[in-house]
Amino acid sequence: MQDSRKDETLMLLQDLLKNAKGFGATSADVVLSDSSSVTVNRRLGKPESIHRSEEADIGLRVFVGKRNAIVSSSDRTPEALTQMAERAVAMAQNVPEDIHAGIADSSDIATIFPDLDLYDPAEPSVEEMNSYADRAEQAARSVSGITNSDGAEFGCGNDTVYYVASNGFVGSYSSSGFSISVAVIAGKDTGMEEDYDFDTAAFLSDLEEPEEIGKRAGERAVSALHPRKGATGRVPVVFDNRISGGLIGSLAGAISGMAVARGTTLLKDKMGQQVFSSGITIIDDPFLKRGNRSHPFDGEGIAPKKRSIIDKGILTGWLLDLSSARQLGLKTTGNAARGSGSPPSPKPANFYMQPGCVTIDELIKEIDEGFYVTQMMGSGGNVVTGDYSRGAKGFWIERGQITYPVSEMTIAGNLKDMWKNCLPANDLKLKYGIDVPTIRIDGMMVAGT
Question: FRET pair for 59, CA 20 to 30 Å: which of 90, 202, 316, 449?
Fold first, then answer.
């Protein structure tokens, strides 16, 4: 985005805050996400759809003492913004006090904004986007045994985030994203199996070749044909790195400051204690170059930090925004995320488990009988009780080798036990924003349903 447009938008938001103060706000902040995207869908080499979107929602939060209200709008006209400020202050004057709410002190706001290389100005034409999707689908359909396609998709977009507050903070940053995905079907009639693959990157040049993505999708679908039921019992379970991130996604929920303050997490009393095995380190990194969730400041204008949330198995910290930090008598960790119509809440940045030293083959070779999981269904673990139960499909392991496909399986356990028994492989890919290498967890309960 051109600097002149950024400057104009920042001035508009600063004027909005002045209006809010004029109507009686004691403090205020405003966030705007100015985004655009284009997505093409192709199936069997023909167009299915093309979707374009442009969004620019403004979210104004005002405080009248300890009372606050949020109003959002997509109308940037001066008249609409004046009405927005007046309405927000009127709402705030008529709600209960929230003693923990409030913007940051001026001494705590970010002042240095590192260049994280998040924005690629590349703008592929629709013809080029169609070509990417077609190449991925053609490669998938070329795999022997593929009988049909659910289609391929190519998408690109960019987003500029603005945050301005009455404490003097003024900031913005731009990011871009590109993605390719394809899903195909193997087999016929009642014996069909579907699988997929995709890639996503901040820069177009960092995307994998469409042919590689398509080939993997086709091979995965074919390899899943003629599934059986696996055995029932306690066995080692290996989670493919496509789905293993859910295990630390549950961790992120369990260490959210909101959950800790409310006491609704199994980790509320575990600070400084061993939660994972000593070989596990989990990082929260907002400064990862070209990272999916990288940002120079958080949703409250605070400078974030790269941290080892789990350091050699030990829980070292929570994910905090200003409100949850105040409730706990702590300082924010710069993990606030903010939407235009909602208050800030804690969220991890690029959240990942450091890889281990063993290959996937080495992870599997010691297993006499076990389950290699490639797809999962249902919700994750309960962060209050730790209970974990999900549907799954994948492959059965016998004598250290992946043997035949299995489906309609259930995996059950408890997050506390699962976290303490994680053994990671060396295949970490920073692809989803929450990333874990392929991992093995021994002693889980599996059952054919």
Answer: 202
